[in-house]
Amino acid sequence: xxxxxxxxxxxxxxxxxxxxxxxxxxxxxxxxxxxxxxxxxxxxxxxxxxxxxxxxxxxxxxxxxxxxxxxxxxxxxxxxxxxxxxxxxxxxxxxxxxxxxxxxxxxxxxxxxxxxxxxxxxxxxxxxxxxxxxxxxxxxxxxxxxxxxxxxxxxxxxxxxxxxxxxxxxxxxxxxxxxxxxxxxxxxxxxxxxxxxxxxxxxxxxxxxxxxxxxxxxxxxxxxxxxxxxxxxxxxxxxxxxxxxxxxxxxxxxxxxxxxxxxxxxxxxxxxxxxxxxxxxxxxxxxxxxxxxxxxxxxxxxxxxxxxxxxxxxxxxxxxxxxxxxxxxxxxxxxxxxxxxxxxxxxxxxxxxxxxxxxxxxxxxxxxxxxxxxxxxxxxxxxxxxxxxxxxxxxxxxxxxxxxxxxxxxxxxxxxxxxxxxxxxxxxxxxxxxxxxxxxxxxxxxxxxxxxxxxxxxxxxxxxxxxxxxxxxxxxxxxxxxxxxxxxxxxxxxxxxxxxxxxxxxxxxxxxxxxxxxxxxx
Length: 522
Known about the structure:
Blueprint: H1 4-17, E1 21-22, E2 28-29, E3 44-50, E4 53-59, E5 74-83, E6 91-99, E7 106-111, E8 119-126, E9 129-130, E10 134-137, E11 149-154, H2 165-171, E12 178-180, E13 193-196, E14 199-202, H3 215-226, H4 229-237, E15 240-242, H5 263-280, E16 298-302, E17 306-310, E18 326-328, H6 343-355, E19 360-364, E20 382-383, H7 391-403, E21 409-413, E22 419-424, E23 437-441, E24 451-452, H8 456-464, E25 468-482, E26 486-494, E27 504-513, E28 516-521
Parallel strand pairs: 2-5, 11-12, 12-15, 17-19, 19-21, 21-23
Antiparallel strand pairs: 1-2, 3-4, 4-7, 5-6, 5-8, 8-9, 8-10, 11-25, 13-14, 16-17, 18-20, 22-23, 22-25, 24-25, 25-26, 26-27, 27-28
Helix pairs in contact: 2-4, 3-5
């Protein structure tokens, strides 16, 4: 890696070569930048599709892994275009954005004025350099009858533990959009091996540097992930709705709490992580960080077919009970003061659900709602970092769905590094009547390595929890194929991620009929 001084000298040379002008602030703006190396190495992305447009994103980083990312401390103009065809013969919108050093030279453009429910293509230009084109589809107009949608669900992509073959396969699916539930990066230091439930494995690749704490640390980690061309292809193929889980900051964090760290110190880390997350995701201005806070829960719709409630189960949650132990329980699980969503987000969610005219109501979130008993034998034990560790908020949510007769609710979840399909009851130990909703949990892109069809404990969980209909422990992603009459979830899995070129198969399909929350094989 070059020194900071050499990067600064290079930046000065870039600015002089570009014919820069000095602004009133004393900083230099580049009218016609000339880059010593290709500046769009981190790819492009689109996100948050709406009926009239979407966000398009890129970041200028000729040397992404260096301090300063190969850019001068100056603002740089970036041109953008959105067209109705890949050849850009019919440009629908164009403009210019400013890549600012304060934001790591990231660009977020909220494109508007587009037609609903159709494909568009976008690209960026800076100086003489241009990106490949990306595809994004606008949402159907609000209330429009939609006969079918097909979208992907993915996340948990630990760079060290496997290759991103699943992203390359997802890019070939011709999806309307993608929901990424989080764990886009992992914060840990570089490790040669990984130890999990399957034993110790050799990591096929390795993080650069130590654990992430500062803004520069997080920027470098995102850059390492985004240099992966399979991930770039996945972003370029469809617009994403993104949220985060824990590893974008620190393992199993909630609110201002991280084990052994004073809250005021941890909030500094959260602030760095929130800025880096915003800088690298295709998010709207409404998500712009304010200190350590970032507004990630939001609503989107897909005509009259889907209402998407994108939730944040980290920032507003109270501490995990029982010292966040695994497969156990304690009195803290029934704490009446406990929160998962926080009061404001919970009230917002209830309003959305009760006002919705959409056929399917979707809770797109991070942690499992099914209260699986994870302990063999007569004792009961839960994953306390899931909704099962928060009995009272979980009961409030499911009681609301049941008592207000909010039908056709589907929960989309990640975090577990395994696939699950199951039914939600207010009390799964004593289920009464029909299930309240269905839940589909999507496995990881790469986290936990190759995996296997089913771990022994997975077989035990299916046997001990009758509401759980499916479990699988391979890597992959999910495709949801939805019509007004039926919701079908396809679990796509890979035979390996420890090497490139894994084989993708459809491991299982499960469906939910309109008006009936039972989960059945498709």
